[in-house]
Amino acid sequence: MKKLLSGAVILCVLGLAGAAAQAKTSVEVSFAFTRQSGSGSNQFAVWIEDSGGRYIKTLFATRFTARGGWQKRQQSIPLWVRQSGLSGMGQKEIDAFTGATPSAGNQVFIWDGTDAKGNEVPAGDYRVYVEATLRGEDRVVYSAAVRLNTAPGEAGVSTQYFGTETAERAMIAEPRVRVIPR
């Protein structure tokens, strides 16, 4: 009887541990944003792709670019424009993730594990992107691999600059990506 009870306790503990490992999680993306003066800057987008590079969802994109600015200024967050399929989106779909260029300060965006249509995506590996047009053709892309619905934790963020080294590189600083409990 003691062995049977011990076995049942062990199975319950293992079951709870497995359930905790499969707990629903979200992804938090944050960074310090410093507005730049002049035109040709302050444009950015935050989005999610699956591990195969397929677009999942945009968390935020600056209104100028999303509402047609990408056609006037093709160097405005071009990776996001291409990956998101922006040219094929309707106005209602675009309005769901756009906003005015924010004031300076800490920016925080949360991905709740859903795709652009609001459907929950399966647990697994995804990639978070933040792309910013710093000035003209100068831009930066931050990216981080995350695993959805696993233990919470911080993801390493990689940085890739395009163009010249300009003072505007301080526009987006201290990017951070964390898997957090939902």
Question: Keyphrases for this structure?
Answer:
182 residues; alpha+beta; Immunoglobulin-like; six-stranded mixed sheet; four-stranded antiparallel sheet; 23% helix; globular
Topology:
Layout: H1 2-21, E1 25-33, E2 43-50, E3 55-62, H2 63-72, H3 78-84, H4 91-95, E4 98-99, E5 105-111, E6 124-135, E7 138-148, E8 153-155, E9 158-162, E10 172-181
Parallel strand pairs: 3-4
Antiparallel strand pairs: 1-5, 1-10, 2-3, 2-6, 6-7, 7-9, 8-10
Q: Residue share in helices?
A: 10-25%
* Global geometry: globular
CATH topology: Immunoglobulin-like
- Give the rounded overall mean pLDDT: 87
First-to-last CA distance: 39 Å
Could you say how many structural domains there are in total? 1
- What CATH architecture label applies? Sandwich
Pattern of helices and strands? HEEEHHHEEEEEEE
